[in-house]
Design a protein that fits this description.
Structural class: alpha/beta
Distance between the termini: 59 Å
Number of strands: 27
Strand content: 5-15%
Number of helices: 32
Mean pLDDT: 80
Shape: elongated
């Protein structure tokens, strides 16, 4: 405007607005504050929380407010809450949050991190809100849960007055009878508000059956879907293994089987499709050469929605994770694992017992006719028996009884080999047992005079009729002797009997005083007692796979230990009542364990009168899960369980948080031949098996082909070899994905805790803040290198960007100072873990680093080098998007894919924050 009138009019308008307090806001103070914050030097911890604040802003809106959670229920006053470590409290709050948001949660913390206590805290929270709770536990862990409900001196949580119902997994297969004090006939299954499933991986199979209701479907239909809306908490220490469907079946409990249940809450359109895609990527990853099969590579290959799925529903922390990212001083350090001791002992000190290879050849020659009577049914009768005993599986296939017997024969041969490897005594008992069965069948054949021809046909008679006992063989599968080729069967039974008798004679010659392995164990015990590895700790825990071996060891050790060292022994097998030399009012499972590990099990509160302890405990795998026995510092595997996961679970009994021991020792007894040869033996026994996989649930998962198990042998060999040199974690077992790589809960909990005192500072923090730090954590020196971690926000809309990024519209990129991208936006968890390690607890500005930075950048005027790194970060993000879009073009019906990102540039992103890492 250049004429005077217009200018005067504009000036009048300007003045009227300037004077109007409603129309105008004076931003000078806010502007100065922002400039001050922008140009102020910030401590690393503040930038960490600013970054978390923007990444998890949405979470804060929906999060169960920590304060109200506590004040509303009095939760913070409970005994259980006050017994928890910080990381366990974070886990509990994360779990409650997930249960409230999604209807359920899986806590998959590693062995030894106290999942049971975390679950009890969650249960108490819901009990305080008047929810009815059911705990489903494996039978062998029932006592662990039962104790906390009792008004009993042994109950260290008695003041919390837990009132949950407790049932065994197996009770889901029963219609009537009692489980504890619960009458199963009258249970109102649909009336539970929360179901807690301990060892939930036991429910990973969901194979429908025609002939009965499986435990899985009973749990799903009668408890979760029926009646009131049921929330679900699952506990499992098993990492996601190579069969991702296992996880799908567990997630179905949370979603009630609704495939689209997470569409709105977690932006996952289809759970089954997400898992199917992840499985296909996982399969490709499994085929890569070993050096390329890294967690980073897998995370690169997996879609974001799988990441989002696991982050939404699971909480998982490993021991290494806690050591790296939590304050271990508050928790107390984990014990140091000494290098495992490996022992290989021959069977007979006199060297008269044949070598393992020869015994194995004899075992392979066995026909095991006593376990395969269907093979001897006369040809014209086979169809009748098939009709009666073959199982129709839900997918239309038939599982033949003859195949089942075939598998049983190979399982028995494999079992004989395992028993010999365990102890020559266990081997003898099994041989004896088989010979006895053969003798009983031979007698029956000899008594059979062929006069049962008038009895009738199989489907016409009552097979349970006691008068027919002589005419029939078998317990579940009954066969008429008259329908069998008795001459051929008798020949094969006698053939087996001859081989077995010879083996038995050789085994019986090896008496305890000649049993080389037992003698080596005695030397080991003597060595440990005379030279403890921690002060005066004389405790040993000895594991074996077989109750027979456990009882044999107890019989041959307890008196010797008592006389020689004045110490007490005990044996726990799960099959028989425990035995011990320690005088106790009641000798049961829990009392024995409490006297073996009195400190960890707080015996003084329960049995203050007890002074003596059990120092040597012999046990089977009935205690390999869910037990705190960390008073002990020395664990012996008397026979090597050839699934490495089981060895790690056993060691987890003493390798636990809160251990009073500085060091712990693992000792493994290996077969007396080279590992490769041993695996070849097992391979030959199992080589011809089309295995019937009776899984932990007791459901029969019919697998047509066992080639998978054979490929598995090579992998197991490598893991067992590794176990000879170090104690590995479940997370380290290659070929497994650990859930700890996918969950972001710790960071959300960090943020919630920080916001209690710093809410306003975070809410007012502008974009563009930065800090400078250096790595001081030795354990991370390879993973952290000088460079910058950028947190960027995408401002321009891009096609399907949220599908590739769990944090959309935010991105994290870690660029090394030479411009190489160390971690791209797919490695969210990894970068946040590093961020946390670099910043947590650093509340002060690191002035020396800032001084160097100002010199390098001429007081911030020359930021060219950092702008170049920023461009690399944006290139990385856009490159990943373009790559994804190219893939999407080939997905039918996805027209978004034709929108390109060719013009994306720096202008399409804002810097939220950045962390400069110096050397």
């Amino acid at each position: 405007m250049d004429d005077r009138d217009s200018s005067a009019q504009l000036l009048r308008q300007f003045e009227s607005i300037w004077q109007d307090e409603q129309a105008l806001q004076d931003v000078k103070e806010e502007m100065l504050r922002r400039l001050k914050v922008m140009y102020q030097e910030h401590p690393p911890e503040f930038i960490y929380f600013v970054t978390l604040y923007y990444l998890f802003k949405d979470f804060l809106k929906e999060a169960t407010n920590y304060e109200t959670l506590q004040t509303r229920t009095g939760f913070q006053n409970t005994v259980i809450w006050n017994k928890l470590y910080d990381f366990q409290r974070d886990g509990v709050l994360g779990a409650i949050n997930k249960i409230e948001t999604y209807g359920g949660c899986i806590i998959a913390d590693s062995v030894g991190l106290g999942k049971t206590f975390e679950a009890l805290a969650v249960i108490k929270y819901y009990e305080l809100r008047n929810h009815r709770v059911l705990v489903l536990a494996p039978k062998k862990l029932r006592e662990n849960w039962a104790i906390y409900r009792l008004n009993d001196k042994r109950n260290i949580l008695a003041a919390d007055r837990f009132s949950y119902d407790l049932l065994n997994h197996t009770d889901l297969s029963r219609e009537r009878g009692y489980s504890g004090d619960i009458n199963l006939e009258h249970v109102n299954w649909g009336n539970y508000d929360l179901v807690v499933i301990d060892e939930s991986h036991n429910f990973r199979n969901n194979d429908p059956r025609y002939d009965r209701v499986t435990r899985y479907s009973r749990l799903m239909n009668d408890i979760i879907k029926a009646g009131v809306k049921t929330k679900v908490l699952m506990l499992s220490a098993t990492p996601v293994n190579n069969k991702l469907d296992d996880l799908k079946n567990q997630i179905a409990f949370i979603t009630e089987g609704n495939d689209k249940a997470l569409a709105e809450t977690a932006n996952i359109k289809s759970i089954s499709q997400t898992i199917r895609r992840a499985q296909s990527q996982f399969n490709k990853w499994s085929q890569l050469p070993e050096e390329e099969r890294t967690t980073e590579r897998l995370l690169d290959m997996l879609d974001w929605d799988y990441f989002a799925l696991l982050d939404s529903l699971t909480i998982a922390r490993s021991r290494r994770h806690i050591e790296k990212y939590y304050n271990v001083d508050a928790i107390g350090p984990f014990p140091t694992r000494l290098k495992p001791i490996n022992l290989k002992e021959k069977i007979d000190s006199k060297d008269e017992f044949p070598p393992l290879e020869k015994i194995n050849n004899d075992i392979l020659r066995l026909r095991m006719a006593v376990y395969s009577p269907m093979q001897y049914v006369l040809p014209h009768k086979r169809a009748d028996y098939s009709e009666k005993y073959d199982t129709k599986v839900a997918n239309g296939r038939v599982f033949k009884q003859t195949d089942r017997e075939h598998n049983l024969v190979y399982l028995m041969k494999s079992n004989l080999l395992k028993r010999l490897e365990s102890s020559v005594h266990s081997f003898s008992l099994t041989l004896q047992n088989i010979i006895q069965q053969i003798d009983e069948h031979l007698e029956k054949i000899d008594r059979c005079d062929g006069s049962s021809g008038t009895i009738g046909e199989m489907d016409e008679i009552d097979a349970e009729d006691p008068e027919l006992e002589e005419a029939l063989i078998g317990s579940k599968v009954k066969i008429f002797l008259k329908d069998m080729d008795l001459i051929r069967w008798k020949q094969d039974l006698l053939y087996d009997r001859e081989i077995l008798l010879r083996l038995l004679h050789q085994a019986r010659n090896v008496t305890p005083d000649r049993d080389q392995k037992l003698l080596a164990l005695k030397r080991l015990i003597e060595q440990k007692i005379k030279h403890p590895i921690n002060e005066q700790n004389k405790k040993l825990l000895i594991f074996t796979a077989f109750a027979d071996t456990a009882n044999y060891l107890y019989e041959n050790l307890h008196q010797w230990v008592r006389n020689q060292f004045g110490l007490h022994c005990a044996v726990v097998t799960g099959a028989d009542r425990p035995k011990t030399t320690l005088k106790m009012k009641k000798v049961d499972f829990n009392h024995v364990l409490m006297n073996f590990s009195p400190v960890s099990k707080e015996r003084d509160k329960v049995m203050p009168e007890m002074k003596d302890e059990i120092d040597i405990l012999i046990a089977t795998d009935c205690i390999s899960e869910g037990q705190n026995l960390q008073d002990c510092d020395y664990l012996v595997n008397y026979d090597i369980h050839w699934n490495p996961v089981r060895i790690i679970q056993r060691f987890g009994r003493i390798d636990r948080i809160g251990s009073k021991n500085k060091q712990i020792q693992l000792v493994n007894f290996w077969p007396s031949i080279e590992l490769d040869e041993y695996i070849q033996l097992v391979n030959r026994v199992k080589g011809r098996m089309t295995i019937l996989d009776i899984s932990a649930t007791g459901e029969e998962n019919v697998i047509a082909d066992n080639s998978n198990e054979m490929n598995d042998l090579e992998y197991r060999r490598k893991q067992l070899e590794k176990l000879q040199n170090e104690v590995i974690d479940l997370e380290d077992i290659s070929g497994n994905i650990s859930l700890t790589d996918f969950t972001l809960d710790d960071f959300r909990m960090d943020l919630l805790n920080f916001m209690k005192e710093h809410k306003e500072e975070l809410e007012r923090a502008p974009f563009g803040l930065f800090s400078i730090t250096a790595n001081q954590n030795e354990k991370l020196k390879d993973e952290i290198q000088p460079g910058v971690i950028f947190c960027l926000k995408q401002t321009a809309p891009m096609a399907s960007a949220h599908e590739q990024n769990a944090l959309h519209p935010y991105y994290l990129v870690y660029v090394r100072k030479d411009g190489t991208v160390l971690y791209h936006p797919g490695h969210v968890k990894k970068m946040l873990d590093l961020y946390r390690s670099l910043c947590n607890g650093k509340k002060d500005v690191e002035w020396g680093l800032y001084k160097a930075f100002y010199q390098e950048t001429k007081n911030g005027k020359d930021m060219g080098r950092y702008k170049a790194l920023l461009e690399k970060a944006v290139e990385e993000i856009v490159g990943k998007m373009d790559q994804q879009l190219m893939l999407n073009i080939f997905s039918l019906g996805n027209l978004d894919a034709f929108v390109t990102n060719a013009n994306t540039s720096l202008q399409d992103f804002e810097i939220v924050s950045y962390l400069i890492i110096k050397g």
